[in-house]
């Protein structure tokens, strides 16, 4: 993999900061310009050696950048891509790391066809946000989905795959619409359910006038970890992948209703069947994840 002489990362939070740190750790980029609207974030990223230069605005910050990585919340893409269309060099490769692709990435392409744009999505992260949570090893052994657009030159695609492999990730190609359906189910729905569950417990605490928050154990903590995730990022995802998330929520509602009915009817065998099916499915998924990480 040829070293990138000069690149820019827009959005120096958990994902942008981790990517910058990974580029540095593996010696993949000589000069990284960090662009973020938050000055404190840029100071922190400079202090940690993640970036070599910084700017709070895109204008004037992209000279000589052959690669531009966009790691801001998906709700900012229209504004950020508009700025890129005005200030990126014509040959620069633009890659976004947003959690939604599908219609969103097609809209970016339709609106800004002059950009050499490849949509991508790292399947790595955490409930923490901000550059303080960044880690050079975040992407190690993690899938990194690429959803090429029909006109994406194959030479640029293979260059991106090489780069992702070099930061330790596992690049996987996927159709953009399929991406949004898959991640609505396995990532976006769990976040909506975790937020909804915690919200409902807070409401029960009020309604029942009982100190519920004093008693949770590890089960609550494991299940709700992701309800501590950044609300801007998740509100943006919910709206950008609205149709797929609504459909997955409807199927979830039906599944929960089946369990509710079995409890109401004291149908023990229906409960056992539901719980066994879920346990076996989850165990197989976790086994598969552990094998992939071994
Ligand atoms: N957190 C995860 O688990 C995860 C995983 C995979 C992909 N993603 C995607 O990566 C992107 C970033 O997520 P994150 O967790 O790093 O978020 P974050 O909140 O940690 O960081 C976002 C950064 O973008 C900056 N920013 C916001 N709007 C901006 C704008 N218009 N111009 C310049 N800077 C701006 C913020 O100041 C912040 O520093 C999102 O699109 C998200 O969907 C997140
Ligand atoms: O580990 C977490 O906390 C995450 O939420 C990471 C997670 C996920 O759902 O797995 C969240 C959103 C991303 O787009 C990719 C990864």
Automatic annotation (TrEMBL):
User: What biological-process terms (Gene Ontology) are attached?
Assistant: tyrosine biosynthetic process
Which Gene3D superfamilies is this protein grouped with?
Answer: 6-phosphogluconate dehydrogenase C-terminal like domain, NAD(P)-binding Rossmann-like Domain
Task: Work out whether the entry's keyword set contains NAD.
Answer: yes
Q: What catalytic activity does the UniProt entry give for this protein? A: prephenate + NAD(+) = 3-(4-hydroxyphenyl)pyruvate + CO2 + NADH
Q: Which InterPro entries match?
A: 6-PGluconate_DH-like_C_sf (IPR008927), NAD(P)-bd_dom_sf (IPR036291), PDH_C (IPR046825), PDH_N (IPR046826), Preph/Arog_dehydrog (IPR050812), Prephen_DH (IPR003099)
Q: Give residue ranges for domain Prephenate/arogenate dehydrogenase.
A: 5-293
Q: Which pathway does the database say it acts in?
A: Amino-acid biosynthesis; L-tyrosine biosynthesis; (4-hydroxyphenyl)pyruvate from prephenate (NAD(+) route): step 1/1
Please give the family membership noted in the entry. Belongs to the prephenate/arogenate dehydrogenase family.
Q: What is this protein called?
A: prephenate dehydrogenase
Natural source organism: Desulfurispirillum indicum (strain ATCC BAA-1389 / DSM 22839 / S5)
